[in-house]
Design brief:
membrane, about 75% helix, transmembrane helix, DUF716, 8 helices, Transmembrane epididymal protein 1A-like, transmembrane, about 0% strand
Length: about 300
Amino acid sequence: MGNGKFGGHFYPGLYIFLYGLYQATVVFKAMRANDSPTYLSSLPKNRKSTSKVWKIAFGGWLKIVTGSLLTFYVVFCLDDGMELINKETPPRFMYPQEWQHLTMFILLTLNGCVDIMSKNVLRQRCVALERGSLALGIYVLLLLLLSHVRVSSRLELYVHSLLILVVFLLMLVLTVELWAARSFRLQLIKNFLFLMMGSWLMNTAFILFRPVSGYPWKDEDVMFATTFFCWHVIINALCLLGVYGLSSSWYHCYSPSLRLMGFKEALYHESSSRTFYRLLQDAEQQDKDDQALLPSKSSPNDRA
């Protein structure tokens, strides 16, 4: 059972941390290009015909694969199987924490399905649907976490309370982002909270179930848990700074091609039909001018 609880904290935390790093790279690249991360993907799909590979919702598929693997892990990590109600008299519910883990991972899978539907099924991407689905998942996650902790020790309650604080702040940011989707500051705060949530969840697995020293933590070690949490704040802020530096270097290396692509896409997005009509008129006028310069054929009356 200890391995199941360790994996139920560590592997989701690892995924959330990597997801936060990936989203940070997307935001910083868009920031360096002075653009919105959702701008290019919100263009009509008939314009994005350069490569079908870039149309694939990799993030959505990653959520589906990760959520499915974690779901199978929760189901099969129990020796006697995932059982909801036992056969005793009177019957009682079994494995409350594992069922909550299962609910969280199913929500992650469904969120990936929404991303794929928005990016690859609908005729035009619906960013509001994706953000709303993610915010709803965080709402449910917060409700589950509020009742997730068995008050078996003061340390376990305090460690999970810090995690609940991060999830609550993330819920507020995602809610505000529904009406301010193009705010880079909100997206940076959101990515920082994802990093905090993932790294602290991984650390929680080691604190509660597999301490590095080999000896379990005591309730009087709560102050050290607070100290470690503050270290996570500093380290994750440095991670964001490092990602920003790498993204800046990447942008400086490929900035000419990015500017050219951004100019072409912006030109189409603002006035595609009008520009095409103007170019067509210019081409027709050029053809008329060229024909006027050509020598005309002499008629039979001129020869006479």
